[in-house]
Design a protein that fits this description.
four-stranded antiparallel sheet; Rossmann fold; globular; alpha/beta; 33% helix; 12 strands; single chain; six-stranded mixed sheet
């Protein structure tokens, strides 16, 4: 049940921003998508989510053309959390999270017991139960990010696509969010997440995919990919890769 990108290319305003990317979102794994600003991470994620069709290449799910799968069915397979998802409506947080149940609802049905349970579970998992009745527009950026994650969890997807899920979050919230992502993968969900923080990618991902100029320049286990050479080539910085004294994961120090 993998979502597979084969030679995917995306153009924005005539400019090639994703260039022939091969990548798979596998069940039970966390893949971190890293690269400098403008590398094509967000554009690739939006193509994988089905928001826009690739200009070249193919995206498939279980060998089915992704764009040919009905939208409601796709929404029961994949959930997307974008960087700065907002709403103009003055909605209580619980109502925003309840939007995640839309792919499971029929036109004539109200909220079912199953819907209520999924919403409550999603609120709790994302740590936002305490402000379920607050107006979404009054929340901080970090709180909004966690609510959008709860909305995606209420969707009960098989695969989760995240574009900078730690954006706006403090250190504690970053770690708890990524710990939740790891637990979702342990339960069988496939996760692809764009991250700026290389140390978070090293600590939480099974696979790291490096994009530069829209192309994949490295892909593999964190220790194989997060090397001084690759970091220097892609980001133009000097980095020393150490070993975390507790976890054994790569630990990147910049100078």
């Amino acid at each position: 049940m993998s979502l597979v990108s084969s030679g995917t290319s995306v153009r924005l305003g005539g400019r090639l921003v994703v260039d022939g990317v091969d990548l798979a979102v596998e069940p039970g794994t966390v893949t971190a998508l890293i690269g400098p600003n403008g590398a094509g991470k967000s554009s690739l994620i939006r193509a994988l989510a089905g928001i826009r069709r690739p200009d070249a290449g193919r995206i498939t799910y279980e060998n089915r053309d992704w764009s040919g799968i009905p939208r409601k069915e796709r929404a029961r397979i994949v959930a997307l959390v974008e960087q700065d998802a907002t709403t103009e409506l003055a909605l209580p947080v619980r109502d925003v999270v309840a939007l995640g149940r839309t792919p499971h609802a029929s036109l004539l049905s109200g909220e079912s017991a199953e819907d209520s349970a999924a919403i409550s579970s999603a609120l709790a998992s994302a740590g936002v139960s305490a402000f379920a009745t607050r107006d979404f527009s009054t929340l901080s950026g970090g709180e909004r990010q966690r609510v959008q994650l709860a909305r995606a969890l209420a969707q009960e997807p098989r695969l989760l696509l995240l574009d900078e899920p730690t954006n706006h979050l403090d250190v504690s919230a970053q770690l708890s969010t990524l710990a939740l992502i790891r637990s979702l993968a342990a339960d069988g969900m496939g996760v692809l997440t764009a991250l700026h923080d290389l140390n978070l990618a090293a600590s939480f991902a099974d696979t790291v995919v490096v994009l530069s100029g829209g192309r994949v320049v490295a892909s593999g286990a964190p220790a194989a990919v997060l090397t001084s050479q690759i970091i220097g080539d892609v980001y133009g910085v000097t980095a020393t890769v150490l070993t975390h004294p507790v976890t054994g994961a790569p630990l990147i120090a910049f100078s």
